[in-house]
């Protein structure tokens, strides 16, 4: 197969070669989201690879950016970092760290001492004051995602979590559910609390109180273990903190002979890459994973180019994706 | 909650404190797999954290090890690197790279130039001769996993893929299937070819030829898109290259009104962390993910301590996990 050229990408996306070049080289300010999306989709479809040798001649070396996430096994983060790698600007080198609390700080110091140029925090830092001082002293810029909003980073990419929670609640209200429960987690980051609060606020606006708000472990197993408690609430619909808990819950309900969506509707959160493959396919709130990754990388590149840039803030929207796991409640005889 | 001590871990695991200390500090040679497993499980359950300050006083700085994988979105690799992070020795700092082919080499150079101490290759390197020369010149040790066996690394962790394929075939033969097909991928690494060959060899030993060997994209979508072709083979059982393809296939068959396992049995490969949550739960071949990660890290630490060590090789076993997606074929009227 012939290698795709930038011309092929431009043709498929229906834009000029200059547009493709600018978008791929991370100069996206002038373009609409739609154009950016078309170009990236066309590039991925054709597998277009720019000539690195040519880029090197022009540019010199790329910055090395470290990205910290809580766990590689959480599909939201796997999606996020894969998207940074595939859809992000090409003039950076990325390394990822899924450090545990016990070695989080030493991993950060180790990477910075070896010359990493910037950090992106996708997880909270327990003793962050010390880490932040270290980074500031070394003049290493850092950006925080939603999950680490308490870091007071200059640059930040956030998501409208409150609205996301509301969307999930309104969907269930519109289906006619009256007995609605939440299945949240024992340990939640700030953005998760917003999600929860938005959901409850929308229920109250609809004149309902949640019938229960159960806490479980933030994992598929946690969702599965909570099935019995969920059944005891008598709820006809559940909002799960994320897709992982939702999927575990659906399996747990199945083990108890309770069918989703016939007996209970379930709404997840994240729209991780397996949500559409489950039986039943999961109704969920889609995170703008690709955009979070691209925006975060672009901001940090801007910051590296100019440390005195004003604060950069981006707040992104979520989207309700209705699939098979939520239907109107059964009419009681 | 009181912080767990090494004493608590020893008590829960039913072993001595010295045993816990040695296993956690990566001196495992003298212990059985069972003891190692008990200690690691107890440690994880209690969340035991050794005193890093004390370790630092004794040891100095930790080596930084880079791990290359093909994609963060492939659950096998997500499991593998998470396991390295959580269950691996604590005296190393780990960074992970999921580089694309286009920036693979620059990412490697970038990390090494900044002082990374060793590399683990979990993916093939297209132009590896140049990369290997670079690493050798800099005296940077590297280890290869199965997926990159062609690198001729001094140290290597492999899995008995041929046996894994055989296990899957024998399971289906024992259930009484006579019409068996394979669903493989367009692009396969060497270890995947061994898997395929082992499966076919065991069928031949059982006096059967596969009714078909379909190739698809190595993804959930690839599995789903292949459903129609799979139905056309008339097979009563399918061996999918991995769990991702298996799960996509099951969903695709469902979309065509074909039920797994009632109409067709499906066996996956990897035992990724969602296999048990699917409906139907997936019969699969379990990879020794935790052991691959721990062994690879221990070998590379040994190598860093002594560059002249003889070649280190480990070949690990797989395990058949029977769940709901495979049953005997329906008796025809």
Automatic annotation (TrEMBL), chains A, B:
Keyword Lipid biosynthesis carried by entry: no
Q: Which SMART domains match?
A: HTH_LACI
Residues in domain HTH lacI-type? 4-59
Which domain of life does the protein's organism represent?
Bacteria
Question: Single GO molecular-function term?
Answer: DNA-binding transcription factor activity
Keywords annotated in UniProt: DNA-binding, Repressor, Transcription, Transcription regulation
Q: Fetch the InterPro entries from UniProt.
A: HTH_LacI, LacI/GalR-like_sensor, Lambda_DNA-bd_dom_sf, Peripla_BP_I
Tell me the PROSITE patterns matching this sequence: HTH_LACI_1, HTH_LACI_2
* UniProt cross-references to SUPFAM superfamilies, sorted A to Z: lambda repressor-like DNA-binding domains (SSF47413), Periplasmic binding protein-like I (SSF53822)
Q: Does the keyword Transcription apply?
A: yes
Name of protein: LacI family transcriptional regulator
Lineage from the top down? Bacteria, Bacillati, Bacillota, Bacilli, Lactobacillales
């Amino acid at each position: 197969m012939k290698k795709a050229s930038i011309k092929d990408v431009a043709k498929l996306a229906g834009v000029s070669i200059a547009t493709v070049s600018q978008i791929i080289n991370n100069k996206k300010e002038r373009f609409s989201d739609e154009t950016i999306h078309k170009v990236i989709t066309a590039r991925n479809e054709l597998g277009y690879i720019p000539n690195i040798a040519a880029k090197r001649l022009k540019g010199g070396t790329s910055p090395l950016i470290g990205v910290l996430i809580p766990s590689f096994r959480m599909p939201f983060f796997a999606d996020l970092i894969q998207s940074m790698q595939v859809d992000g600007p090409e003039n950076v080198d990325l390394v990822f760290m899924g450090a545990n609390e016990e070695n989080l700080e030493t991993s950060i110091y180790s990477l910075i001492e070896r010359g990493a140029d910037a950090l992106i925090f996708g997880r909270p830092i327990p003793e962050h004051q010390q880490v932040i001082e270290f980074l500031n002293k070394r003049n290493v810029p850092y950006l925080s995602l939603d999950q680490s909003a308490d870091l007071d980073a200059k640059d930040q990419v956030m998501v409208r979590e409150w609205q996301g929670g509301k969307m999930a609640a309104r969907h269930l209200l519109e289906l006619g559910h009256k007995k609605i429960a939440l299945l949240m987690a024992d340990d939640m980051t700030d953005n998760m609390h917003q999600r929860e609060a938005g959901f409850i606020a929308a229920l109250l606006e609809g004149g309902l109180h949640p019938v229960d708000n159960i806490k479980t472990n933030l994992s598929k197993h946690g969702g599965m273990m909570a099935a019995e408690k969920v059944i005891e609430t008598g709820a006809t619909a559940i909002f799960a903190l994320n897709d992982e808990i939702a999927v575990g819950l659906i399996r747990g309900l199945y083990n108890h002979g309770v069918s989703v969506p016939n007996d209970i509707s379930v709404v997840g959160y994240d729209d991780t890459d397996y949500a559409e493959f489950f039986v039943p396919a999961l109704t969920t709130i889609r995170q703008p994973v690709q955009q979070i990754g691209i925006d975060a990388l672009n901001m940090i590149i801007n910051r590296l180019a100019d440390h005195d840039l004003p604060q950069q803030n981006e707040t992104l929207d979520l989207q309700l994706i209705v699939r098979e796991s939520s239907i109107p409640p059964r009419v009681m005889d």
